[in-house]
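Spend some time on this chain, tokens included, and walk me through the fold:

. . .
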Amino acid sequence: MASNQTSVHEPKFAIPIHDIEQQTSLEIEEKDIDYSKRSQWLRAAVLGANDGVVSTASLMMGVGAVKQDIKVMILTGFAGLVAGACSMAIGEFVSVYSQLDIEVAQMMREKRRVVDGREESEKKEDGEKESLPNPVQAAAASALAFSVGAMVPLLATAFIREYKVRLWVMIGAVSMALVVFGWLGAAFGRAPAARSSGRVLVGGWLAMAITFGLTKLIGSSGLPL
């Protein structure tokens, strides 16, 4: 009779130790991820993609406000793509290189102050060198992302002859791209996705509306264009 009873201290369900260790390992790895380190390339990539979409679409809409020819709009967008990608790459390279110089100088100052604990200091220095910003990586990411973003309004309008349809298709394609880029930036950085996407989308709409409106105003003022 007693042998058929389950002991109070005997567990009813046994969880494999291997599964517990694996789950614990995954939780530790998830906690140890420093998402701020991604900002070196993520910031450049997201900024480049957003600028590529917004600036190229704004240029095309601004020119389209006074020149409805599709060839003029496409050439304007292509010129904006090339100029913007080069500008973003150079600007990001210079900016990140300045940041690199500052951080390296700070590391050298801290190294001079170290007298004791040499081995520990060397390990810390190796870790700091790995986390230093990379100007070439940031410039390449920025230029590539800008080009990808700029291709959205170009491809959306390349084969549409009707002017009004062309504008609305471009606005729709650009809006979708801005939402996606905003969501990706938030997802990689573990930030609120809805807020990020909404902020990027509204900013893009404002840029396009202001450019279109001001160019239309100047075009209708009687200036020779």
Observations:
- The chain has one domain: 38-219.
